[in-house]
Amino acid sequence: MRNKYAVRLDNVTKIYRMGRGSVKALDSVSLSFLTGDFVSIMGPSGSGKSTLLNIIGCLDIPTSGEVYIAGENVSKLGEKERTKIRRDKIGFVFQHFNLIPTLTALENIAFPMLLRGEHRYEERSRELLRAVGLDEELGEHKPAELSGGEQQRVAIARALANDPEIILADEPTGNLDTKTSMEIMELLAALNRRGKTVVVVTHDPLVAEFTKRTLRMLDGRILTDITDITDRITAAR
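^ that's the sequence the OP posted. Answer follows.
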């Protein structure tokens, strides 16, 4: 049985030490995303959005507080255990795509499966390429030979390689034109309709309109989270 909460943070604070001083990137953040949620996180630069996504994605650990992914407390795990959580439960989509330039599109998609030791990675890579709307011919192209929209579709396919429960997208449309941005958001919305929990960091209100609810951040704190509160409390019981 899937945990009702895909993500839960309890009183999470993150402090970065910088020389003789420090920066509090997250300040006592508590929140939860139900399994199947589609959430956008908005706020000005420096508000803590990316730090929050890194904490959720097990790329960083909190200074204090607890983080639960699919019911498991990951804030106290070692690096090896957090790596396994990232590999198996979380798919990442980045603004700058982060594709490996020397690999073809299909090889980029296959890479997470190879790290996991999957044997049918070639067939699955082709399935995912088609699933994000790309022709198999493009699978033989390297990232520099693809448009920005095509690269982002490859990045989404790679994020799905190990069939994660959670998709984290950090400014996934930031380098794309409006038409392509809307196509990428339609793709993420379709993944959400298939049961994936999708969390998107964005500056773009048009992107946020695709999501079911929006969190707003400032100075490391959540300002508002009031959409459908009654329904969410009922669903969590």
